[in-house]
Amino acid sequence: MAEEEFPSLNQKLVSIPNFLGTPDHAIAQAVLQNFAKITPQYPGVRAALDPTVCDAWLAQLSPLLDQWFGAAPRGWAMQAWYSLVTTAPADLAPIQRLPHVDGTDPQQIAMMLYLNSAAHGGTAFFRHRSTGLESLTAETYPRYAAAVQADYGRTGLPPAAYPTDGAPHFERIHVAEGTFNRAVFYRGNMLHSGVIDNAAPLSADPREGRLTINAFFRPVQG
C-alpha cells in the first residue's frame, strides 16, 4: 500500500497493489455481464458490481477510508461498476475531451481498479491554468465553468481526442499508473481523466479492452 501526497494541495492518493487475490475471476465475471451505456458523461459502457461483492469490499475498506480520508461516523455507502471505455476519440462529445470531476463534494471518494492489459493507462490529474484549480467545490465550480467557457471561446473546441497533457488550458500534474490489479483511491472532486491511448483500439470485450472496476464511497448521512 502506498500514499502519495499532492504537493500543491493537501490532497492524497492511496494505492493498493494486488488488490484482488484472483483478478482473473473478476475478469471472468465481467465477461458474463450485460454492459450498457448508463450515463452520457462516461465514454463507454458499464455493468453494476454484484451487491454482495460491494458489501464484502465495504466491510474491508471502511476502516481504511476512515484512516485515509477522515472518519465517517455513520459508516460509508458504496456504488461500483465494471467499466469499459469504448467510445472512439472521433466520437467524443466536447465535454468528454476535457478533464472532469465526479462531483463537487470533497467527501465523495473514488476508486479505480485497473484490470486491463491493453495499451491504455491509468488516471491523470490536472490543474486548470487560468484559475489554478485542481479540484472543484460547489463554491468554485461557477468560476471554473465560466473560465473554461472563456478559454475555449478564444481557442475553439478541444480536438476530438482523449486528454493527454491537458494543453493548452490544463496542466497534467500527476499520473496514477494503471498497473494491472492496482486500486487507487482519491477525492472525486479532483480534475482527472483516464489515460487513454488515442491510437489504440477500444475493445468492448472485457478480456481485451480497458476494463476497470470503479466505485464511489460516500459517508452515510444521518
Description of the structure:
- The strands form two sheets. The chain has a seven-stranded antiparallel beta sheet. Strands 7-6-9 form a three-stranded antiparallel beta sheet, with no helix packed on it.
- The protein has three helices and ten strands.
- The longest helix is centred in the first third of the chain and has 19 residues, at 51-69.
- By secondary structure, it is α+β, with helices and mostly antiparallel strands.
Rg from C-alpha positions? 17 Å
Q: Kindly state the mean pLDDT as a whole number?
A: 93
**Proportion of strand residues:** 25-35%
Q: Are there runs of 5+ residues with pLDDT below 50, and where?
A: none
Strand order of the largest sheet: 1-2-8-5-10-4-3
For the largest beta-sheet, the strand count, sense and barrel status come to: 7 strands, antiparallel
Name the structural class.
Answer: alpha+beta
Report how far the terminal alpha carbons are from each other: 31 Å
The protein's oligomeric status is single chain
Question: Which percent range fits the helix content?
Answer: 10-25%
